[in-house]
Design a protein that fits this description.
alpha+beta, Hemagglutinin Ectodomain, Chain B, three-stranded antiparallel sheet, 209 residues, 6 strands, Nucleotide Exchange Factor Grpe, Chain A, domain 2, three-stranded mixed sheet
Amino acid sequence: MTENQMNHDEEITLNENQEVSHPEASNHSTDEDVLTEAEVEIIPEDDKTEDSAEEIQSEAVDIQAYEDKIDQLEDHNLRLQAEIANMQRSNSRERSEAAKYRSQSLAKKLLDAIDNLERALAVKADNEEALAIHKGVEMVYQQILAAFKEEKIEVIDPLNEPFDPNFHQAVTTQPVQEGQQADHVVQVLQKGYILDDRIIRPAMVIVSA
C-alpha cells in the first residue's frame, strides 16, 4: 500500500468519526428545518381563520341589516293596516249617517208646503164647497205627516211645554198671565221638525217671562 492511499484512508476514517461524534448538530439542523416548515404551514391557516372571521362578521352585518329592513317593512305594513281600518270605519260611519239622514234634504223642501197646508186648514169652512176643499187639504196634510213619520221625522209642537233652546226658537216673550208658568211656550208660531237626533227646523215660539 502506498503512502498516498494510507493518508486517504485515514481522512475518510477521521471524517466518519467526526460525523458520529456530533450527531446532535445534524439533528439540530433537521429540527430547525421541520420547525420552519411547520411555521410555513401555520401562517396560511391563521390567515384563513382571519378571513373566515371577517366573512362571518360581514355576513352577520348583512343579516342584521336585513332584519332591520324587515322590521321597518312590518312597521310600515301595520301603519297601513291601521290607516285602512280607520278609512273603513270612517266610510262606514259616513254611509250610516247618509242613510240615517237621507230624508233631511227632501223634508226641508217640503216644510214650506206643509206650512201653507196648515194655514189653509186654519181657515174655517163656511159652505159645502169650502168643506170639501178643507177635507182634501186635510188628507194631503196627513199623508205628508205619515210619510214623515215613516222616515222618522217628528213634529215639534211644544205648546205649554217648558222652553228648550235646543228645540225651540223664541221670537219674543210676553208677561206671565193667569194660569201660565214662566219660561213656558205660550204660543207656537211655526212648528218645528226633527229627524232622529238632528233638528231640521226649530219651533218658532212665544215664551212667557
